[in-house]
């Protein structure tokens, strides 16, 4: 069942061109939906419209089938976690968590019970009487989470909540959020520009570009079956290598007639110092950089058809110089002139 | 430890020092210790000449009887005794407090209301901000003269306006029951713009996401104001209240020009009384004693204020 539905949503600021035009989106009940895209793609605006902090210029947003037109943010059964936490600096941790509950006119005993439950969930039991200024970034983010949890909302909205944290803490809170989502069973809508966050936490990913949905799928499908070149290039580190189709045709491979580009993931490719015979795509190139990450080696190889990035798990670093790249034909993707992926393979 | 750190951070200096004879090193160290005092000496000198010495001299004078011509005569605490037995002094003190309290209440209250009203950054609001700030840049003496005309019982604009709506005229500055409130009106009119501007800038400094968080937390406008805006701007309010408080205690110009302490001493304040005793009646000892009392009151108010409210002010 769809928890949140956005229908024909358009958003324009003042008299400027709309940042979002005729957007349709359904968010499944209980899903961890990630709105992913480069900065300026409108993902935060969508989240803020769901929250009621921005008014849609046209279209309708429904939560649980109820239109949200004219419904105040406080009455939408939602909780939001901001990028900069947005904790009230003049209130203690308890005050911050309790503020919403007091406004919801929940009695003291119930408030205390909920606060206790929430702080236990995020591990903040000992910090209830501290001021936010006396907390670390990670602790503040936990307070913001607790503040959202106590309200027992049916939808959690999160606007890049991890981007102000260091990478170690980010990884930790990422797993905390996955756990929290599973424990609460609520619908999470999470905005980020970081594909690692999206892939690791999301059950559904909505990939956006310039206010338009480029693909709405599961992380796995997004990775294995990118709908278009944008998806293919946005997801994955390093991203998918996209070559002009003539690279394959010159190598004598069969390709779909309407294909204009071919792509393959960096890990779908092997680096060989000496050309070997075999099926599949063979590309000659020059190693430009080599990064040894321990479990894998990343190569940047200059070929006649552009730069190709390779992720090698063989554990044997190849010397700088001339190499041959071998790509398994089953792992090639083809894209047409509109940069959409072709489902039928030509090889 | 210090030597080790010095050697790490200033290797060249420590090397030079090691080569120099011991006596030179000692002299140099002494010179280095004196340098900070030398640098603050000009500021200290000014502070001493214009602040500390006059205060000290005022306290000293309060124990003497002196009219600026005959030699000073030591009278001990006699000036204070006379003062505390003089009902007029208590009237003056009462006037001062009355003036201060009402100016503070209305000056801050109206400024807070105006700031809330002008918070949104629009062209009209910017114009209104400048308009409301205008009285502050005018010299108080000119302001006082203008208000004397406005409040003229026979030809003043205020009474003319009252007449237009069929109300009887008020003897703004001649009625002892009204005169003090007329002065308070002028004072509020003068300070409200400045207060508004400070409060406004403090309000505009409150991050917008806090208000968004409050909306998501279902907080109404009143709750948002009292729980978020007010605590967030408390440092500015604290500062303004203290500044206004001190300015009110020291108020002089408007009284001097508009009422000269009258009618029947109804508007005489501590500083005006001090001025009268000092420079009209040439009782400098008594005037100094009043000055000491004023200083003690302001000092006490400031301390109490810091003690009572300082901890509740939220500094980011």
Topology:
The complex is a heterodimer of chains A (347) and B (316).
Chain A: E1 2-11, E2 20-28, E3 32-36, H1 43-51, E4 58-63, E5 66-67, E6 78-81, H2 93-103, H3 108-122, H4 137-149, E7 155-159, H5 167-184, E8 187-192, H6 195-201, E9 204-209, E10 212-217, H7 219-224, H8 229-234, E11 241-244, H9 246-250, E12 261-264, E13 269-272, E14 281-292, E15 297-303, E16 306-312, E17 322-327, E18 333-335, E19 341-342
Parallel strand pairs in A: 3-8, 3-9, 6-7, 7-8
Antiparallel strand pairs in A: 1-2, 1-4, 4-5, 9-10, 11-12, 12-18, 13-17, 14-15, 14-17, 15-16, 18-19
Helix pairs in contact in A: 2-3, 2-4, 3-4
Chain B: H1 2-9, H2 11-19, H3 22-61, E1 64-65, E2 73-74, H4 78-84, H5 87-118, H6 123-137, H7 140-150, H8 157-164, H9 179-204, H10 208-216, H11 221-249, H12 253-259, H13 270-279, H14 284-309
Antiparallel strand pairs in B: 1-2
Helix pairs in contact in B: 1-2, 3-14, 4-14, 5-9, 5-11, 6-9, 7-12, 9-11, 9-12, 11-14, 13-14
Helix content of chain A: 25-40%
State the CATH architecture of the largest domain in chain B. Answer: Orthogonal Bundle
Q: Treating each run of at least 4 consecutive H or I residues as one helix, how many helices of chain B?
A: 14
Derived structural class of chain B = mainly alpha
Largest sheet of chain A: 6 strands, mixed
In which order are the strands of the major sheet of chain B placed?
A: 1-2
DSSP strand (E) fraction of chain B? under 5%
């Amino acid at each position: 069942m769809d928890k949140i539905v956005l229908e024909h949503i358009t958003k324009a600021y003042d008299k400027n061109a709309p940042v979002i035009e005729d957007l349709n989106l359904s968010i499944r009940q209980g899903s961890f939906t990630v709105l992913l895209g480069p900065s300026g793609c409108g993902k935060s605006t969508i989240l803020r419209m769901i929250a009621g902090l921005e008014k849609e210029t046209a279209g309708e947003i429904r939560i649980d089938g109820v239109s949200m037109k004219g419904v105040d943010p406080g009455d939408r059964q939602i909780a939001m976690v901001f990028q900069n936490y947005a904790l009230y600096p003049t209130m203690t941790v308890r005050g911050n968590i309790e503020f919403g509950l007091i406004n919801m006119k929940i009695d003291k005993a119930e408030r205390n019970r909920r606060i206790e439950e929430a702080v236990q969930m995020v591990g903040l039991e000992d910090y209830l009487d501290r001021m936010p200024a006396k907390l670390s970034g990670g602790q503040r983010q936990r307070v913001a989470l607790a503040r959202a949890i106590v309200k027992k909302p049916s939808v959690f909205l999160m606007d890049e909540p991890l981007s102000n944290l260091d990478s170690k803490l980010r990884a930790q809170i990422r797993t905390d959020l996955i756990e929290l989502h599973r424990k609460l069973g609520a619908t999470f809508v999470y905005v980020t520009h970081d594909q690692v966050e999206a892939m690791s936490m999301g059950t559904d990913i909505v990939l956006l570009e310039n206010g338009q949905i480029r693909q709405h799928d599961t992380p796995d499908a997004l990775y294995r079956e990118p709908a278009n070149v944008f998806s293919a290039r946005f997801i994955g580190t390093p991203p998918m290598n996209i070559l002009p189709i003539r690279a394959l045709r010159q190598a004598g491979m069969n390709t779909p007639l309407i294909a204009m580009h071919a792509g393959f993931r960096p890990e779908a490719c092997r680096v060989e110092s000496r050309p070997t015979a075999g099926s599949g795509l063979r590309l000659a190139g020059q190693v430009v950089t080599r990064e040894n990450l321990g479990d894998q080696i990343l190569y940047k190889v200059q070929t006649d058809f552009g730069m190709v990035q390779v992720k090698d798990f063989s554990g044997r670093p190849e010397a700088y110089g001339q190499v041959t790249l071998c790509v398994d034909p089953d792992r090639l993707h083809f894209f047409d002139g509109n940069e959409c992926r072709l489902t039928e393979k030509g090889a | 430890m210090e030597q080790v750190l010095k050697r790490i951070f200033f290797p060249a200096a420590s090397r030079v020092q090691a080569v120099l004879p011991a006596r030179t090193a000692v002299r140099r160290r002494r010179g280095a210790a004196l340098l900070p005092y030398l640098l603050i000496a000009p500021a200290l000198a000014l502070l001493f000449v214009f602040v500390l010495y006059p205060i000290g001299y005022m306290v000293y004078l309060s124990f003497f009887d002196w009219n600026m011509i005959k030699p000073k005569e030591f009278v001990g605490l006699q000036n204070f005794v006379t003062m505390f037995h003089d009902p007029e002094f208590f009237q003056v003190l009462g006037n001062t407090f009355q003036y201060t309290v009402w100016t503070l209440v209305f000056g801050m209250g109206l400024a807070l209301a105006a700031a809330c009203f002008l918070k949104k950054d629009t062209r009209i609001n910017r114009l209104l901000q400048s308009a409301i700030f205008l009285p502050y840049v005018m010299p108080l003496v000119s302001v006082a003269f203008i208000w004397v005309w406005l409040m003229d019982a026979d030809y003043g604009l205020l009474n003319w306006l009252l007449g237009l709506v069929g109300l009887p005229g008020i003897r703004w500055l001649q009625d002892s029951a009204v005169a003090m409130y007329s002065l308070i009106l002028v004072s509020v009119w003068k300070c409200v713009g400045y207060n508004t501007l400070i409060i406004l800038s403090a309000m505009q400094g409150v991050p917008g996401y806090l208000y968004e968080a409050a909306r998501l937390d279902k907080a109404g406008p009143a709750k948002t104001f009292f729980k978020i805006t007010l605590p967030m701007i408390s440092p500015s309010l604290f500062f303004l209240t203290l500044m206004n408080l001190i300015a009110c205690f020291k108020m002089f110009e408007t009284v001097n020009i508009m009422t000269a302490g009258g009618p029947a001493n109804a508007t005489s304040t501590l500083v005006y009384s001090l001025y009268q005793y000092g420079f009209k009646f040439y009782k400098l000892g008594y005037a100094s004693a009043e000055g000491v009392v004023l200083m003690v009151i302001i000092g006490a108010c400031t301390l109490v204020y810091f003690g009572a409210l300082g901890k509740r002010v939220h500094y980011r």
